[in-house]
Amino acid sequence: MSFKDQLLKAGIVDKKKVQQVNREEKEQRRAAQAQREARAVIETQQAAEAQAAAEARLVVQRAEQRAREERRAALERARQLSDLLRAYRMRLREGKQLFFHRSADGQRVVRQLLAESLAVDLRVGRAAVCWIGPRPAEAEYVLLPREAADRVAGLAPERVLFLNETAPPRDDLSEKLYDMQAIFDARARVPDRWAGLR
């Protein structure tokens, strides 16, 4: 038997007073329950926000780590490329054979006079024209053996300017070597009929 029931039996309080006290206690319990629920909701929201912030920090850290790894890989590729280009470059010997390839920026065609042996190597695919430099505008053209050019093409295909994949047939007249000095001499011997008009 509760204390309220004892007071009601003794006649100290009436039934209305007991009901009012019960209602007040019930309201206090409801208010306390609402506070506990609100506190639980707030704690859940704070925990979710903390977890979201931690996940966001983790995503940022992973992105930064990925960017660092990509920069490191790009630097390593650039170092390997530079080492390949400098280690395997063949000396460009001036000669009498005219040879054309595209420029490093891809906008022009570059004309070079090469030694006959180098021109043959380029035509049959034993050598390739590549460029060295920080940017295409500052390019230095070099020749590389086929194996080194294939490795360069794997690292940076834009650095390979000319690489003949298939050798031309032996009876192809367009592949016949010619002497540019003889052509220049022949041009010099032909009188310029427009000389007086200039």
A few lines on this structure:
The chain is an alpha+beta fold and 198 residues long. It is built from five helices and five strands, in the order ααββαββαβα.
Task: List how many beta strands DSSP finds.
Answer: 5
- N-to-C order of helices and strands: HHEEHEEHEH
- Spans of at least 5 consecutive residues whose pLDDT stays below 50 are none
How is the main sheet built?
Answer: 3 strands, antiparallel
Spatially, the strands of the biggest sheet line up as 4-3-5
General form: rod-shaped
Distance between the termini: 132 Å
Task: Assess the beta-strand content as a share of residues.
Answer: 15-25%
- Helix/strand-derived category reads alpha+beta
Tally the structural domains. Answer: 2
Q: Percentage of helical residues? A: 55-70%
Mean pLDDT: 84
Number of helices: 5
Radius of gyration: 44 Å
Helix and strand topology:
Elements: H1 3-10, H2 15-88, E1 94-102, E2 109-114, H3 116-124, E3 127-132, E4 140-145, H4 146-155, E5 160-163, H5 180-189
Antiparallel strand pairs: 1-2, 3-4, 3-5
If you had to describe this structure to a student in words, what would you say it looks like?
The structure is a single chain. The protein is of the alpha+beta class and 198 residues long. It has two domains: 1-88; 89-172 and 179-187, no CATH class. 56% of the residues lie in helices and 16% in strands. The chain has five helices and five strands. It has helices at 3-10, 15-88, 116-124, 146-155, 180-189; strands at residues 94-102, 109-114, 127-132, 140-145, 160-163. Strands 4-3-5 form a three-stranded antiparallel β-sheet. The model has no long low-confidence stretch (mean pLDDT 84).
